[in-house]
Amino acid sequence: MTGISQLGDDLSRILDKIPTPSGDITAANMATAFDTCLATWLSVHQTSIVTAPGKGGLTFELMDLLSAPKPSGTLFAIDLAKALNNYTLAAIVIGVVPDTPGVPFTGPIS
């Protein structure tokens, strides 16, 4: 993913602005940063990736995650990992496996 270095910069910039008037603002900005990064993901024989189906869910899960302090860093990390996992599973990869004729495929990253 070519967007991974930009993701680090984006998240750093977003988190430097905390506290914000609402955790929802931070969550929406983080979701956009993750979405921009995943849009750069490329697999073998892939022609495109559609990340839009999961962005709304990611935004909602991040809003929930950032709405109140967690009792431990471990619980925060678990919930963040679940949100990112759900988001990436919703992404759809489209491509063509070379053959005569080519074999089109569409499906989740996993």
Characterization of the model:
By secondary structure, the protein is α+β, with helices and mostly antiparallel strands. The chain has one domain. Helices cover 56% and strands 15% of the residues. It has helices spanning 4-16, 23-38, 52-66, 73-90; strands spanning 46-50, 92-97, 103-108. A three-stranded antiparallel β-sheet has the order 1-2-3. Strand 2 and strand 3 form a beta hairpin. It starts with a helix and ends with a strand. The mean pLDDT is 91.
Secondary structure category? alpha+beta
Strand and helix order: HHEHHEE
Number of helices: 4
Roughly what percent helix? 55-70%
- How are the strands ordered across the major sheet? 1-2-3
* Residue-averaged pLDDT: 91
The total count of strands amounts to: 3
- Low-pLDDT runs of 5+ residues are none
| Percent of sequence in beta strands | 15-25%
Classify the oligomer: single chain
Please tell me how large the radius of gyration is.
16 Å
Shape: elongated
Distance between the amino and carboxyl termini: 16 Å
Q: How many structural domains are formed by the residues?
A: 1
Major sheet attributes: 3 strands, antiparallel
Please sum up the structure shown.
By secondary structure, this protein is an alpha+beta fold. The protein has 4 helices and 3 strands, in the order H-H-E-H-H-E-E.
